[in-house]
Specification:
Number of domains: 2
Strand content: 15-25%
Order of helices and strands: HHHEEEEEEHEHEHEHHEHEHE
Number of helices: 10
CATH architecture of the largest domain: Alpha-Beta Barrel
Helix content: 25-40%
Strand order of the largest sheet: 1-2-3-4-7-8-9-10-11-12
Bound molecules: iron/sulfur cluster
Largest sheet: 10 strands, mixed
Distance between the termini: 25 Å
Shape: elongated
Number of strands: 12
CATH superfamily of the largest domain: Aldolase class I
CATH topology of the largest domain: TIM Barrel
Radius of gyration: 21 Å
Structural class: alpha/beta
C-alpha cells in the first residue's frame, strides 16, 4: 500500500508556519500562502506571483501540490457533475457536484475503495485500496470550485467512496481546513460526515466541538435485515448504534440524520415503516429516504415512487421528520451507492 506524500493542502496553518520558519522564512508568510491556495485557488507555486521567487522555490522544493488530476468528467441531464480523479499512485476516486436551486453540494471521497462492502453500494465491490491524505480530500474541493461549479459550492458531504471514520484523522484535518477562516471558510454546519455506523467514530466526533452534521447509514430497522445489507452490523449492532446516536444528540444538542435505502419488499414495507418509526420517535433525529439506485452486481429492486411515498407518509403520520430524496446523477452512475471509480 502506498502512503500518500505530505503535500501542500495537507498542512494546517500552524504546520505551514512551522515549515516556513524551518526553511528560513518568516511565519507570517503562511497566511499569504493560504490566501493564494484557498482564496485565489492557485494551481501552482509559480502562480503565487506576489510571493518572492526565492520563497516559491523553497515551497516547491519541499511540498508537492496534491497529486490529483482530473481523468474525466460526466455531466448528468439534471446538472449533476461527476469527476473521476487519478491520484499520484494511479488510484482513482470520484467526486460529485450536485446543484439545486438553493445550494451547491459537493460529495467527496475519503478513501480509495472501501472495506465495508455494503450490499447495495458499488464503492465496496473492488475492495479497499488506501486512505486519502487531507490534501487529496481538499484537492477534490479546490478542483471542483475552480473548474466545475456552474454555481458556488455551499455544502460539503463526506458521502463519496470510503468510510470517513476509517480515515478519521485525515478527514477531520480536512474538515478544519474547509472550515478555517483563512482556509475555505465553509461553515461547519454545512459540512456533513456520513458513516456506516462506526461507533467509536461517532463517540469521537461528539468530542470535536464542531457543528458538523452527522449522518448515519441505517438502511434497515432490525438487525436481521441490516446485517444482510451491511456486514458492519455484526460489529456495531443496531441497538448499540442507536444508543450512541441518542447520546450524541443529547451531548451535542444536534440532530442526527439517518439514511435509509428503500428496497422493494425488503426495507420498503409497512412493517419496516412501523419499526423504523419506533426507533426514531421522541428524540432529535431525522430520516432521509433514498430509493435504491441500481448497481448491476446486486439483485435489489427499487420500489415505485408511489410505494416510496406510502412509506414516507407512514413515518410522517407517526411523527418522524423525514424527506424522500430524489435521485441525482443516476444517468451517469453518480447517484448514491453507484460510485465505483470507473474510467467511463
Ligand atoms: S455505503 Fe459507504 S461504507 Fe458501505 S460500501 Fe459504500 S462507501 Fe463503503
Amino acid at each position: 500500500m502506498t502512503k500518500p506524500p505530505a503535500d501542500m493542502c495537507s498542512l494546517s496553518l500552524e504546520e505551514l508556519s512551522r515549515h516556513l520558519v524551518s526553511v528560513g522564512e518568516p511565519a507570517f508568510r503562511a497566511k499569504q500562502v493560504f490566501n493564494w491556495l484557498y482564496v485565489k485557488k492557485a494551481t501552482s507555486f509559480d502562480a503565487m506571483s506576489s510571493l518572492p521567487k526565492s520563497l516559491r522555490d523553497k515551497l516547491s522544493a519541499g511540498l508537492p501540490f496534491p497529486a490529483l488530476s482530473e481523468h474525466s468528467r460526466h455531466r448528468s441531464d439534471d446538472g449533476t457533475v461527476k469527476f473521476l480523479f487519478e491520484l499520484h499512485d494511479g488510484q482513482r476516486i470520484e467526486t460529485v457536484f450536485i446543484p439545486t436551486s438553493k445550494r451547491g453540494t459537493l460529495c467527496v471521497s475519503s478513501q480509495a475503495g472501501c472495506k465495508f462492502g455494503c450490499r447495495f453500494c458499488a464503492s465496496g465491490i473492488g475492495g479497499f485500496k488506501r486512505n486519502l491524505s487531507t490534501g487529496e480530500i481538499i484537492g477534490q474541493v479546490l478542483h471542483a470550485m475552480r473548474t466545475a461549479a456552474p454555481k458556488p459550492i455551499t455544502h460539503i458531504v463526506f458521502m463519496g467512496t470510503g468510510e470517513p471514520f476509517d480515515n478519521y484523522d485525515q478527514v477531520f484535518k480536512a474538515v478544519r481546513l474547509l472550515n478555517h477562516p483563512d482556509g475555505l471558510n465553509i461553515a461547519a454546519r454545512r459540512i456533513t460526515i456520513s458513516t456506516c455506523g462506526i461507533i467509536p467514530g461517532i463517540e469521537r466526533m461528539a468530542q470535536e466541538g464542531l457543528q458538523v452534521e452527522l449522518c448515519v447509514s441505517l438502511h434497515a430497522p432490525d438487525d436481521a435485515v441490516r446485517a444482510r445489507l451491511m456486514p458492519v452490523n455484526a460489529k456495531y449492532p443496531l441497538k448499540e448504534l442507536l444508543a450512541v446516536c441518542r447520546r450524541y444528540a443529547e451531548t451535542t444538542n444536534r440532530q442526527v440524520t439517518f439514511e435509509y435505502i428503500l428496497i422493494k419488499d425488503l426495507t420498503c414495507t409497512k412493517t419496516a415503516a412501523a419499526a423504523l418509526a419506533r426507533l426514531m420517535k421522541g428524540w432529535l433525529s431525522k430520516v432521509n429516504l433514498i430509493r435504491y439506485n441500481p448497481v448491476s452486481e446486486f439483485t435489489c429492486q427499487a420500489p415505485s415512487m408511489d410505494e416510496a411515498r406510502v412509506f414516507q407518509a407512514a413515518l410522517e403520520s407517526a411523527g418522524v421528520v423525514c424527506t424522500l430524496r430524489s435521485a441525482r446523477g443516476d444517468d451517469v452512475s453518480a447517484a448514491c451507492g453507484q460510485l465505483r471509480n470507473k474510467r467511463s
